[in-house]
Write a structure and sequence with these properties.
- The chain is of the alpha/beta class.
- Helix content is about 40%, strand content about 15%.
- The protein has 10 helices and 10 strands.
- The strands form 2 sheets. It has an 8-stranded mixed sheet with strand order 3-4-6-5-7-8-9-10, sandwiched between helices. The protein has a two-stranded antiparallel ribbon with strand order 1-2.
- A hairpin with a 2-residue loop joins strand 1 (about 5-10) and strand 2.
- The longest helix is centred in the C-terminal third of the chain and has 16 residues, at about 205-220.
Length: about 290
């Protein structure tokens, strides 16, 4: 990858070069980036616990943006977006819809990763006309097995990481096998490819509010997912410790129009470890 901005017409095609823009709606100024061709249904990426714009794997973003318009954003109170972070997934979904509508978009595809996949499920249930297709990766349904334990797992792995001078995502997202460790190091290196105009880190209060929201999601009564008629691609690694992989099988079983891909020797960050496989699968699904 070159240091110069990759251009196809006027479209930015490299995530590390995508300018950070802002749009204000509902009293909140949302920070976002977009890239790829300005045609077809846009794909809105909704990200994970503690993540800001710079936490998306550029191989996944660039891969999808090679053929689709991709939009990433900081939800309310996160990174460079203003306001205070809600303590429920439902409020986060409302904010995401406010952002999408502020961009003037009537139909979108949604890719929700981890917490973002929880938000995406609420969006498609409350605003079904807005969503055409849905990708749910590394995530689970309300009341899903082990989701209420995300706070404990996150805290334990953060301590493990600090004690070994590593990034917590090395433990939280990847297996401890040789392949998993290597994939983690490669992923973390890719997150540093953008060297200018990086996003603000998440605040401790926003992180705390997100943990509370996920905990509440894990304690909720299971939602009826049978009304979600949109095609759904569910993806995960076979050894997800944060949102146990059993939840991905549960989503596939309960969603009427779902298909599942599970990557071997991979954890929560399976789509990043197997980005070479995930990107073509996602594009084929989105363009079907």
């Amino acid at each position: 990858m070159t240091d110069s901005q990759d251009i196809r017409g006027d479209a930015v095609t490299s995530y590390k070069d995508a300018p950070t823009r802002t749009i204000t709606a509902g009293g909140v100024t949302y920070a976002y980036r977009e890239l790829g061709p300005d045609s077809g249904t846009p794909v809105v990426f909704i990200t994970h616990l503690a993540a800001v714009l710079d936490n998306w794997d550029p191989r996944v973003v660039d891969g999808i943006a090679a053929r689709r318009r991709v939009i990433t954003f900081d939800n309310r109170g996160v990174g460079a977006s203003t306001g205070s972070t809600p303590r429920t997934i439902q409020e986060m979904a409302q904010d995401a819809v406010t952002f999408i509508r502020a961009l003037g978009l009537a139909h979108v595809d949604v890719h929700g990763f981890s917490m973002g996949g929880m938000i995406a499920q609420v969006i498609v249930q409350t605003e079904p006309q807005l969503v055409r297709r849905l990708i749910l990766s590394g995530t689970g349904p309300a009341g899903g097995e082990g989701i209420k334990n995300v706070t404990v797992v996150s805290h334990l792995d953060t301590v493990r990481a600090l004690s070994t001078l590593q990034d917590p995502k090395q433990f939280l997202f990847f297996t401890r096998t040789a392949a998993g460790r290597r994939a983690g190091k490669e992923f973390l290196a890719r997150l540093k490819e953008r060297t200018v105009n990086r996003d603000k880190a998440i605040s401790l209060i926003s992180y705390s509010n997100q943990l509370k929201a996920i905990h509440r999601w894990g304690l909720e009564q299971p939602h009826d997912l049978s009304g979600i008629r949109q095609p759904v691609l569910v993806a995960n690694g076979e050894s997800d410790r944060m949102v146990p992989t059993k939840n991905s099988y549960d989503l596939e079983r309960r969603l009427p129009n779902a298909e599942l891909v599970v990557y071997p020797d991979a954890g929560h960050g399976g789509i990043f470890q197997f980005h070479r496989q995930f990107v073509p699968t996602a594009l084929e699904f989105l363009e079907r």
